[in-house]
Amino acid sequence: DGQNLVTEDVTVVEGDVATISCRVKNSDDSVIQLLNPNRQTIYFRDFRPLKDSRFQLVNFSNSELRVSLTNVSISDEGRYFCQLYTDPPQEIYTTITVLVPPRNLVIDIQKEVAVEGEEIELNCTAMASRPATTIRWFKGNKELTGKSEVEQWSDMYTVTSQLLLKVGREDDGVPVICLVDHPAVKDLQTQRYLEVMCE
């Protein structure tokens, strides 16, 4: 269809920098512009009509308009439009997706000290992430299965996972680990040590 515009979707962690690139194959020196999701012009060639100084020009030539957006927040998410003033005009969009790591990870243990043979309840909560976090449990290095509930609050998800654990004397001093699986964060985990009293 003679479409000359190329762009890619962008996934970025909240607070980081997103880079949007509008590229032109077979450039004929037509004007390139970039619009935000409300269709306001961010850049027209190398001029920025939009007053938001978080947008900065990274590269401008007749074959590319590349713009960075610093300190990305959830409200920046959406479709951005690359336009080329050919006849007829061409337009494609790129989608910015914003990831938010969980704010906090807390293990709550029903009893500080358990008696051998007793079943205890542990809850691990990952606050306010996007997308929803997957919570994994380990006792020492053995993976266990918990039961997760997800609460959505506006655009954020809080996940609580409940683990029921029958403890034996061999569990005394063993760490129970709650680990987060989330695209915005690596190696986020917290742990509590079991205390088991023998009858």
From TrEMBL:
It is a single-pass membrane protein. SUPFAM superfamilies: Immunoglobulin (SSF48726). GO terms for biological process: cell recognition; detection of stimulus; homophilic cell adhesion via plasma membrane adhesion molecules; susceptibility to natural killer cell mediated cytotoxicity. InterPro entries: CD80_C2-set (IPR013162), Ig-like_dom (IPR007110), Ig-like_dom_sf (IPR036179), Ig-like_fold (IPR013783), Ig_sub (IPR003599), Ig_V-set (IPR013106). The keyword Repeat applies. GO terms for molecular function: signaling receptor binding. Signal peptide: none annotated. CDD domains: IgI_2_Necl-2 (cd05883), IgV_1_Necl-2 (cd05881). It is found in: Membrane. Its main location: membrane. Keywords: Disulfide bond, Immunoglobulin domain, Membrane, Repeat, Signal, Transmembrane, Transmembrane helix. Pfam families: C2-set_2 (PF08205), V-set (PF07686). Residues 1-97, 102-195 form the Ig-like domain. GO terms for cellular component: neuron projection; plasma membrane; synapse. The keyword Heme does not apply. This is Ig-like domain-containing protein. It comes from Callipepla squamata (Scaled quail). The lineage of its organism: Eukaryota, Metazoa, Chordata, Craniata, Vertebrata.
